[in-house]
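Its record is set out here:
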Amino acid sequence: QVQLVESGGGLVQAGGSLRLSCAASERTFSLYTVGWFRQAPGKEREFVAAMRWSDSTATYADSVTGRFTMSRDNAKVTVYLQMNSLKPEDTAVYYCAARLLGAGTPNPNDYDAWGQGTQVSVSS
């Protein structure tokens, strides 16, 4: 099973930017769909974005559309989440997830592997 490692979280002021990375452990990552989810304290895990590795087709939650962008680096087997115009309500632990041979979905139960999460904190 593929292993995922997130990085890039931190503390930023509202209106600022961060880029999260999700590095995969295997080259067959091209078969996967990769998703980003987030979970704030006391709340359920929430879909943020997903991208099919094969053609970079991406979908986004309404709350982040126009502000967040997913991309990938084939050579590094890494997926990125560029987050711009951050808001305090974006504060959460962000998780990278992978789904083998399926399209991106907002249901976390559809994903087969998860990273450990990285904290994003946005101050007002």
Q: What stands out?
A: The CA atoms of residues 39 and 45 lie 4 Å apart. The longest strand covers residues 92-100. DSSP finds no helices and eleven strands in the chain.
